[in-house]
Amino acid sequence: MSRPAPSPFYTLRGAGGPLNTLHFSCHGGDSPLLFSGSGKGAIHIWNLNTRRTEKIVEGHAGSSVIWVSRLQATDTLISSQGRDMQVCLWDLSEGRSEVVDSVWTGSVGFCQCSILETTPRNYLLAFAGQQSEEIKIIELPSKTPVCTLIPDAKLGMVMCIKLWQPNSGAGPLLLAGYEDGSVLLWDVTQRSKLSQAKAHPEPVMCMTFDTKRLRGISGSSEKKLSSWMVDRQNNLQGQLTCLTHPSPVSRSQALTGKIQECVTLVNPGVSQLCIRGDGKLLASAGWDHRVRVFGWKKLRPLAVLQYHTDMVQSVAFSDHQDPKERLLAAGSKDQRISLWSIYNEGADTG
Question: How many CB atoms lie within 10 A of CB 99?
Fold first, then answer.
C-alpha cells in the first residue's frame, strides 16, 4: 500500500495578504527565522521556535512585496523588492526597522531580483529595468552601475533572473528567462550573451539553478518543467535523456539549443521552483494549489503536498545546519504559509 500524503506540521497565519516570497535564515542568529513578503506590502519575520511573528516591517507604500533576501550571515540586514519599483535595504539591528538605502528599478513587472555576494559586505544586484527586455546590474552598497543587458532579438519581457559565480574563477554569470520562452546565459563582465536555448513555448515563469552541477530547471504556464545544463563552454543545452520520450536523444540534437529533458505535470502552471541545499530535492509551487516534490538527480516524483485552497506562489527550503531540522515552506494566495518536514532522514530521493 502506498503511504498517505503527508500533512504540514504547522501553518503560519496572519500575513494579511497573498504570500509572494519566502526566505529562511536558520543559522547565525539566536532563533531560526522565516521572512515572508505579502501582496499588501508587509514583510513578516516569523520566529520558527515560537511559530509566531517576531516583527512586521511595513514598506513599499503598501505595494506588493515580491522578493525578500538576507544580505549577510546575520538577520539584521535584509533587502526587499516591491511593485512600487523600489528595492529597499533594511537595518533590523537592535529592534530597528529602518530603510538605510533604496534602488529605483523602473520595473512594474513581477521579475524577482537576484543578489550575489562578491566580497564580504559587497554585492551585485540584478533587476529588471524600465525597458521590458533589459536587465540592470549594480554594485552594492555603492550603487555603482555595472552593466545593462539587452538581447539582440525581440524576446519580450524578462521574467526571471539568477546571478551566480562559476567555480572556474571567471567573472559572474547571469541566467535569464524571457516572455518568448527562451533562457539566455550572460557574461556580466563582458556584457555579452554566451548562449541561448528555447525552454518553453510560453513565458518562462520561474527557474532555479544548481551551481554545483551546472544544471537548471524552469517552469511556465504549461504542464511541463524543462531541465537544462550549462556545459564547460558555457553552452545551454538539454540533457541527453528525455523523460517524456523513451528513445535516447543524440548529442547532436542536444546541442541545437532546444531543451530535451522535461517533466510532465498533471495540471498546468508553476509559480516557483526551489532546490534544497544538499542538492537532493526539488520543490515546485503549483497554480493547482499543490506543492510537488521531486528527486533532483533523476527528477523522480516523490510527493504531492495538498493543503492550500488557492494558488501556491512561493516555496523555500530551510538552511538549518542539522539535516533533521530541515523544513519546506510554501506560501499561497490563500494568505497561509505551510511548513513541512519531509525526506530529512536520508531516504532514497533519486
Answer: 14
Say how many domains are in the chain.
1
CA within 13 Å, CB half, 147: 14
Angle at 179 between CA 165 and CA 79, to 5 degrees: 45
1 alpha carbon, distance to own chain's centre: 35
Going by their DSSP bridges, the two strands 281-286 and 290-295 should be labelled as antiparallel
pLDDT of 239 reads 45
**Rounded to the nearest 10 degrees, how much is the dihedral formed by the CA atoms of 254, 255, 258, 263?**
30
Note the pLDDT tens digit of each residue in 296-343: 999 999 999 999 999 999 999 999 988 899 999 999 999 999 999 988
Q: How would you list the strands of the sheet with 122-128, edge to edge? A: 114-119, 122-128, 135-140, 145-149
Nearest Cα residue to 64 out of 286, 313, 338: 313
Domain range for 60 is: 15-102
With respect to residue 290, please indicate whether it lies within any of the assigned structural domains: no
pLDDT tens string 163-194: 999 987 788 999 999 999 999 999 999 999 99
Q: Give a yes or no: residue 49 inside a domain.
A: yes
Instruction: Write down the pTM of the prediction.
Output: 0.90
**pLDDT less than 70: residues of the chain:** 1-5, 28-29, 73-75, 238-261, 346-350
How far apart, in whole angstroms, are the C-alpha atoms of residue 87 and residue 145?
15
Residue 307 in any domain: the answer is: no
Asked if residue 284 belongs to a domain, the reply is no
What CATH number does the domain containing 92 carry?
A: 2.40.10
Grid coordinates representing 162 are 539568477
H or E element that contains 286: strand 281-286
